[in-house]
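Hi all, posting the design record for the shared folder.

TITLE: backbone redesign
STEP: 1 of 1
STRUCTURE INPUT:
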């Protein structure tokens, strides 16, 4: 599975503004300035994921960052919050390995 960060992605991020960078949320940037900033830093970054359905593993890479890995089923006490990065990995595994995901009750 492959994707790319687009201007529309950055527009949505800056409008949502989880980091409080825009003037509407106490920051110094307009939404347009926020988009331009992240377009320069993140624009066209490639994201890749690959899954091994048989072993229940997935590997995710954001640009040149070190890959993240997960093995399913997850442990009962594993952090599945957005901050952990697990929700996108779970969703991607479900898409790439629907039979294994159903068996593991991920869907």
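Okay, here is what came back for every position:
SEQUENCE:
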């Amino acid at each position: 599975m492959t994707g790319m960060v687009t201007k529309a992605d950055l527009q949505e991020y800056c409008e949502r503004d989880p980091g409080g960078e825009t003037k509407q949320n106490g920051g110094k940037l307009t939404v347009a300035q926020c988009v331009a900033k992240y377009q320069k830093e993140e624009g066209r970054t490639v994201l890749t994921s690959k899954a091994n359905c048989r072993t229940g593993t997935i590997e995710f890479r954001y640009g040149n960052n070190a890959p993240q890995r997960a093995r399913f089923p997850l442990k009962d006490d594993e952090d599945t919050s957005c901050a952990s990065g697990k929700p996108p990995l779970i969703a991607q595994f479900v898409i790439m390995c629907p039979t294994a995901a159903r068996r593991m009750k991920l869907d």
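COMMENT: The first strand starts at residue 2 and ends at 4.
Let me know if anyone wants the other runs.
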